Amino acid sequence: MIRINLLPHREEKRAARRRQFFALLGAIAILAGLIWFMGYGVINGYISSQDDKNRFLKSEIAALDKDIEAIKHLKEQTDALLSRKRIIESLQANRAETVHLFNELARQMPEGTYLKSIKQKGDKVTLVGYAQSNSRVSSMMRNLEASPLLERPGLVEIQSVTVGSRRLSQFNMNVYFTRQQTTAEDDVKENKKLKKGKKS
C-alpha cells in the first residue's frame, strides 16, 4: 500500500493563501491611501477656491462700503445745498414782504386811526396804535379781515388814554400776514402755459 504525505502541499496552499491575503490587504491599503490622498486634494482644492472667492468678495464688499460712504457724503452735500436753495428761494419770495405789509396797512387804516408800533414775528404782526373812538378800531378790524394779504385780526386790548389834551382809544391787536409764495410746481405750470400760448 502506497502512502502519500499531503502536509507539504497543504502548507504550500496555506502559504499561497496568506500571500494572496497580504497582497490583497496591501492593495486595499494602497487603494485606500490613494482615495484618501485624492479626496484630500479635491477638498483642499475646493477650500482654496472658496478662500479665493471669499477674498474676492471681501475686497468687493470693501469697495462697495467706500462707495456707500461716498454716496452718503454726496447725499449730505445735496441735502445741505437743497436747504440753502430753499432758504434763498424763501428770501427771494419774501424780500418785498415788508413793503407789501406797510402798503396794505396804509390802505386798510380808516381815518382817525394811526399806528404807534408794528412788530412782526413770523406770520404774526402785532399792531399798537391810537384811534379817535372804539368804532374806528372796529372799522379797522373789518378792513383787515377783508384784506387779501392780512387775515384773522384779533383785538388783544383796548383802553381809553389821554394824549396831549385829546381823549383817544389805545388798541393792541394781532393780525396774520398771508405769504404770497410760488412753489416750483406753480412755476413749471406757468412756464407750460406760456409755452402753449406761444405755440398757439
UniProtKB/TrEMBL annotation:
Protein's GO biological process: type IV pilus assembly; type IV pilus-dependent motility
Transmembrane annotation, as ranges: 21-43
InterPro entries: Extracell_DNA_Util/SecSys_Comp, PilN
Keywords (A to Z) from UniProt: Membrane, Transmembrane, Transmembrane helix
Record's protein name: Tfp pilus assembly protein PilN
